[in-house]
Amino acid sequence: MSGTLYVIGTPIGNLEDITLRQLRLFREVDFIAAEDTRITHKLLSHYEIHTAIISYHEHSGHVVAQNIADRILVGESCGVVTDAGMPCISDPGEPLVQLCQAQGIPIEVVPGPSAAIAALAVSGQHTAQFTFEGFLSVNQNQRMAHLEQLREETHTMIFYEAPHKLCRTLQDLAAYFGGSREISLCRELTKLHEEVRRTTLAEAVAYYEQVPPRGEFVLVVAGAAPQEGRQIPLAEAAAMVQSRLDDGVKLTQACREVAAQTGHTKRELYAQFQNNA
User: Number of helices and strands (H, E) in the chain?
Assistant: First the structure.
């Protein structure tokens, strides 16, 4: 008889943010699959729980996931956890859940905190409709394609970012969305140095160029206003591109910058110069 895979949320910083059900299941499951066993061990030790922990992270691969599934299939129960928050959200728990579903293994969710939702709640941005975008790719082409797709997104957008990548990400967001776009930078949520800084993208770039970013960040970015920036004709926007070309800026970069300022797409602007070439 198959056991059960429990998808268990954990605190995102403050160890008091845990539920009675989570604590009970941590004691009852046969083993816990953890993204970082050291972090999970610290949590369990805090509550004097001694359940066995195995490592399961983004580099574990299919074989490790199948070994976990095989143990559950013969009757063991497993709790999968991430370092903080809900597993499977920008997290390696996703393929394990998909594998277990495909093999008919019972799966139960044990909800806990989510950094994305916590940040959205305190951001001061609109919360009725939003998109979760996770981490931007470090691959330049994929990153640009992702941001281009979001250029006219009207819903509030939520991104995760590490401190050492924050400045580049803010610069890219400003290039695609415009420096005047509002952003709430939420860091160290539920921890001692929790901070929510609501500002514009341009101001955020300037601030963090002077102040080294610390802690994990959730970026809550305001969506585009409907028909944002369509006040000027396409020909005038093309003239703005030409001005940048005259200053030595490459065509793709010039189109990207002007698109962020005017609301015209980069493709529209690029086509103006391709057609005239």
Answer: 11, 10
Q: How far apart are CA 109 and CA 180, in angstroms?
A: 40
Euclidean distance between CA atoms 15 and 46, whole angstroms: 8
Residue count of the chain, please give it: 277
Task: List all residues 6 or more positions away from 174 whose beta carbon is below 8 Å from its beta carbon.
Answer: 181, 201, 202, 204, 205, 260
Residue 277: predicted pLDDT:
53
- In angstroms, the CA 216 to CA 165 distance is 10
| 8 A C-beta contact, residue 261 and residue 240 | yes
Distance CA 192, CA 148 (A): 36
Instruction: Return the CA Rg of the chain.
Output: 23
Please tell me the distance from the alpha carbon of residue 250 to that of residue 137, in angstroms, as a whole number: 23
Identify the pLDDT of residue 228: 47
Q: Quick check: 173 and 221 in contact, CB under 8 A?
A: yes
Q: Which are the contacts of 129, defined by CB distance < 8 A and separation ≥ 6?
A: 155, 156
How many C-beta atoms surround the C-beta of residue 7 within 10 A? 22
Residues 276 and 269: their CA atoms lie apart, in Å, by: 11
pLDDT of residue 275: 63
Contact 129, 156 (CB under 8 A): yes
| Strands across the sheet containing 78-81 | 52-55, 31-34, 78-81, 5-8, 107-110
User: What pLDDT score was predicted for residue 178?
Assistant: 92
Residue ranges for the chain with pLDDT beneath 70: 1, 226-231, 275-277
Q: Token digits for 107?
A: 């799966």
- Hey, which residues does 182 pair with through a beta bridge? 200
Find all residues with CB under 8 Å of 153, minimum gap 6, and list them. Answer: 131, 223, 224
